Amino acid sequence: MNKLNLHRETYLIDKLLYIDGTSGSGKSLVNSILSSFEDVELPIWDSHYEHLSFLYENNLIDKQAALSLIINFAENRLYDSVLGRHTNFRYLDGSSVFHNSEPLKNILKIFKRDSDNLSEDIKKNKKILSLGSHHLTSFPSLVSEAFKDKLRIIEIIRHPAYLIFFWIERDWANRMGKDPKDFTLWVKKNENYFPWFVKDHEEEYLKMNKVEKIIFSLFWIFEMREENIKKNFNILKNNLLTIPFEGFCLDPIPYLKKIEIFLEKKPKKNINKFLKKEKIPRKIYLNDILNEEKKIYEMKIDYKAKEIFKELCLKYEVSKIYEKE
């Protein structure tokens, strides 16, 4: 039997926007504000893109099949989004129609008629599909190759101390690889299940306590991020915008200007309403962060974990983006 030559071009997509980051980085806050830019569709959280990207990065799926699938997923999602299909009406969700720009306009989409001209309208108006993702910058090869210059990734980063406490609060170290509500990809080894980022470190991971697992997990994710951004630098040098959560909270204006240039879309008049709703700008003090760091160093973790945490903090360059008391 001849091998199928799957193929799909990007026709509807003018720009595809991913709002990326790890769990607890502040993606939801920025996602809501991004809906206040012209022609940016309501944010959609869909793990298919990151899962497919992980499979591709690890040679677990045929290249042409992966490219065809991810392009088809994105084109289909954009078309459906313009028609209001799959609109999130859950009031408690950050991605809900009620917590994003122009809720009435987006609700009325569900009454819009499909037509033969809709594809051309989408293309003409240069609508931007907005997708929330986790750790896409740790395996960006597929989206870089599939969408090339149409790709836009806004990556939200946050100080490691806050991420660690967020993961502790959510009990991710005990839940990932075990909890049915954890929808990350799992790796199985010797009857044990692990989250994908533990691959090649399974034995040492089992010997760690909860906090050590979190510190090393964030470090391994960061290592993959550095390696794969370098590998795809030709695309990502222009198509990746990294925003520190703390810097954005302190003074959003410079970052909003960067986003405007990055997306080639202007903010709507109601953007100040969303900034106020999210209490932006807000004060964040260096001393508060240093206290959080101190708490982690005082925890029962081994010397190596403390050194890894120190390295994560140094790379984040916290002193440059915090407001001093």
List the helices and strands and how they pair.
Elements: E1 15-21, H1 27-34, E2 44-45, H2 48-57, H3 63-82, H4 103-108, H5 118-125, E3 128-134, H6 141-147, E4 151-157, H7 160-170, H8 172-175, E5 186-189, E6 192-195, H9 202-206, H10 210-231, H11 233-239, E7 240-244, H12 245-250, H13 252-263, H14 271-277, H15 286-297, H16 303-316
Parallel strand pairs: 1-3, 1-4, 2-3, 4-7
Antiparallel strand pairs: 5-6
Helix pairs in contact: 2-3, 3-6, 7-10, 10-16
Can you put this structure into words, describing what you see?
The protein has 325 residues and is an alpha/beta fold. The protein has one domain: Rossmann fold (3-Layer(aba) Sandwich), CATH 3.40.50. The chain is 49% helix and 11% strand. A 5-stranded parallel sheet has the order 2-3-1-4-7, with helices on both faces. It has a two-stranded antiparallel ribbon with strand order 5-6. A hairpin with a 2-residue loop joins strand 5 and strand 6. The termini are far apart.
